[in-house]
């Protein structure tokens, strides 16, 4: 399910095999055909589909298109004879361009009389318009079709929600329903989307989910919690220990069919199955998610689990929903057991209702008894005692109410002192989950108020019946006045109890908020301590590095001084060597002069020549010794020079010996 292309390759001339399959659509509903063709020129609302499909479909795609074309064309026969095969196909995914018409066929919304009333409904005014306008911008805020203010998408979404609020005034408007309508508008024009939504509300239990009492949501939470207890007992115990109620994470799954949980391609596949099989898929997918994430959830506290459900789970199946859907159908789902759980929940709620109406029954019985009995002194005394007790009870209720109000104000002041600059968005998300948990409590509160209203009506009828009796003797009038006052006090007491319940609910919400804020602060303090320790460690490490750096600089300076001294010493030795070489050269020159003088004078005899040669050799040896003490390059140079002179001396000696 990728993004949508206005062209429909299946109906191009190159794939004429689908034209017979679509012929029925051309005759019955032109707008539905436009939704299949994907033109969207009227509503502009088909934006969830495949990217730039070419007209050359693969064989697999062609087979799928031909198959779905035949299913659509022969829907009635296929639905009756091959219902199981249709369900299997839907689980594998409905091709996008068929999704609009198949959804209408699955819920039997293709020919509803209410469709003709749609344009008239748009001309009327709904009391929910302000609420709808407020929430429009929050519905798919990142989607191109809905994100622009006053865009076509927002306008058609407002139209459908407004029309339904006029058709079903008991439900009116509920925030989660806008996501379902938004998805429908991505597939089909607004008139068809309106009809499909009406069908979903009527036949798929959504109407009961979205009623102000949200009784059906309470039932779903009860059934889902029992499934967790049966299939995942360890996780159930962990949730209980952390006070992590099912409604804190699962309410949105049932109210929006995972549309606010997963990206649209995955949520749309789940919605395909919902259109075919109803809320069962929500139970299956929900339990499959918990099974896949059990190990991680067991390691987290309440706040960590909330973050895991909000941040981690939505992106676990970005590669595709097949793995999730396969896991969902591995879950054991027993329809008979779900019916049994529904009966258990109804019994529990009935008992609660009986306890709540106990006041009403007792007062009604008292009125009936008093109307049919004779008035006497004992009865008057009894009424006076009951009046005193009722006043005491009212006073106690007022004190409790005042104490609760003071406590609420104190909690509000404490909450206002918490830093919320960086946590506002996160807290709002968490509070949404907490407010969903309030649904059942608010339901009980509304029922109690309704009972108070019934009591008032009953009392007014009683007054109307007994109007003529006020002309009786003064004693009877006094009794009637006491009865009137007693009933008034009882009614006020019931109203006070209702207010106390409401304040307790607010206290629970604010204490939860307070706990969340405290957790944030505790974690922030731990992070600050950790950062402080890191700073201290890095400071110590920095000091050590600075010490090492200064020591390295000192050693480098010492090495540089030594190098300079060595360079100076080498230069001095070099100067001494040069002077010594010059002196030796001079001495050698003198020796050569002496040798030449000896040759010229011819005064050398054999003994003198030998003596002279020995002296020369000794001098040469001394010079060799001195040269060896010089640096290598001077040594090499003079060694060659002296070696040459030595050879000359030996040659001369050999020549003289031969002449002798």
Gist of the model:
The protein is an all-alpha fold. Helices cover 76% and strands 0% of the residues.
Structure description:
This protein has 660 residues and is an all-alpha fold. It is built from 27 helices and no strands. Helix 2 (30-37) runs antiparallel to helix 6 (96-106), helix 10 packs across helix 11 and helix 16 crosses helix 17.
What's the helix and strand layout?
Blueprint: H1 19-28, H2 30-37, H3 59-73, H4 75-81, H5 83-92, H6 96-106, H7 118-123, H8 129-136, H9 152-167, H10 177-185, H11 190-203, H12 206-210, H13 215-231, H14 233-241, H15 247-256, H16 264-277, H17 280-297, H18 302-312, H19 322-328, H20 335-356, H21 358-372, H22 377-416, H23 424-437, H24 439-465, H25 474-601, H26 606-628, H27 632-659
Keywords: Coiled coil, Phosphoprotein
Protein name: Ecotropic viral integration site 5
GO molecular function: GTPase activator activity; small GTPase binding
Which features does this protein show?
660 residues; mainly alpha; 27 helices; disordered N terminus
């Amino acid at each position: 399910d990728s993004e949508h292309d206005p062209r429909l390759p299946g109906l191009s001339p190159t794939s004429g095999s689908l034209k017979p399959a679509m012929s029925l659509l051309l005759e019955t509903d032109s707008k539905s055909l436009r939704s299949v063709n994907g033109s969207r020129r009227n509503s502009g609302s088909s934006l969830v589909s495949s990217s730039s499909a070419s007209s050359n479909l693969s064989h697999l795609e062609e087979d799928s298109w031909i198959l779905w074309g035949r299913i659509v064309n022969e829907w009635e026969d296929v639905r009756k004879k091959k219902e199981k095969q249709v369900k299997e196909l839907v689980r594998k995914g409905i091709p996008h361009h068929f999704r609009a018409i198949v959804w209408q066929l699955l819920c039997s919304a293709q020919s509803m009389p209410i469709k003709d009333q749609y344009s008239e409904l748009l001309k009327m005014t709904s009391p929910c318009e302000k609420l709808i306008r407020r929430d429009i911008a929050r519905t798919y805020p990142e989607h191109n079709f809905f994100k622009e203010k006053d865009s076509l998408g927002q306008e058609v979404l407002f139209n459908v929600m407004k029309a339904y609020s006029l058709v079903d005034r008991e439900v009116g408007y509920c925030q989660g329903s806008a996501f379902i309508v938004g998805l429908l508008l991505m597939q089909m024009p607004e008139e068809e989307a309106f009809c499909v939504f009406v069908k979903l509300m009527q036949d798929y239990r959504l109407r009961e989910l979205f009623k102000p009492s949200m009784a059906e949501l309470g039932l779903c939470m009860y059934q889902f919690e029992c499934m967790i207890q049966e299939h995942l007992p360890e996780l159930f115990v962990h949730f209980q220990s952390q006070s992590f109620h099912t409604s804190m994470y699962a309410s949105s799954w049932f109210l929006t069919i995972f549309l606010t949980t997963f990206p649209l391609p995955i949520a749309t596949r789940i919605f395909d199955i919902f259109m075919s099989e109803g809320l069962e898929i929500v139970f299956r997918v929900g339990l499959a998610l918990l099974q896949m994430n059990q190990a991680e959830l067991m390691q987290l506290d309440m706040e960590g689990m909330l973050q895991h459900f909000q941040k981690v789970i939505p992106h676990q199946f970005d590669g595709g929903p097949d793995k999730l859907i396969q896991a969902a159908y591995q879950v054991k789902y027993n329809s008979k057991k779900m019916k049994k759980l529904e009966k258990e929940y109804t019994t529990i709620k009935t008992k609660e209702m009986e306890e709540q109406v106990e006041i009403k029954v007792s007062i009604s019985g008292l009125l009936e008894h008093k109307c049919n009995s004779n008035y006497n002194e004992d009865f008057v005394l009894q009424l006076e005692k009951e009046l005193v007790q009722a006043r005491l009870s009212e006073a106690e209720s007022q004190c409790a109410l005042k104490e609760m109000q003071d406590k609420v104000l104190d909690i509000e002041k404490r909450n206002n002192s918490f830093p919320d600059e960086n946590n506002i968005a996160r807290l709002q998300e968490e509070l949404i989950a907490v407010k969903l948990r309030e649904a059942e409590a608010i339901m009980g509160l509304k029922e109690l108020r309704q009972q108070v209203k019934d009591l008032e009506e009953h009392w007014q009828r009683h007054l109307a019946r007994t109007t003529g009796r006020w002309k009786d003797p003064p004693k009877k009038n006094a009794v009637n006045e006491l009865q009137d006052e007693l009933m008034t006090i009882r009614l006020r007491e019931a109203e006070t109890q209702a207010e106390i319940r409401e304040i307790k609910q607010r206290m629970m919400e604010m204490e939860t908020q307070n706990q969340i804020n405290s957790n944030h602060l505790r974690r922030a303090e731990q992070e600050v301590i950790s950062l402080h320790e890191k700073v201290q460690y890095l400071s110590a490490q920095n000091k050590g590095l600075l010490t090492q750096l200064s020591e390295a600089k000192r050693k480098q300076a010492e090495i540089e001084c030594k190098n300079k001294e060595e360079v100076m010493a080498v230069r001095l030795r070099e100067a001494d060597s040069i002077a010594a070489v010059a002196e030796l050269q001079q001495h050698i020159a003198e020796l050569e002069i002496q040798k030449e003088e000896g040759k010229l004078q011819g005064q050398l005899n054999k003994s003198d020549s030998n003596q002279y040669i020995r002296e020369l050799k000794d001098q040469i040896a001394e010079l060799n010794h001195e040269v060896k003490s010089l640096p290598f390059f001077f040594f090499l140079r003079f060694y060659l020079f002296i070696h040459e002179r030595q050879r000359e001396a030996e040659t001369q000696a050999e020549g003289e010996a031969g002449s002798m």
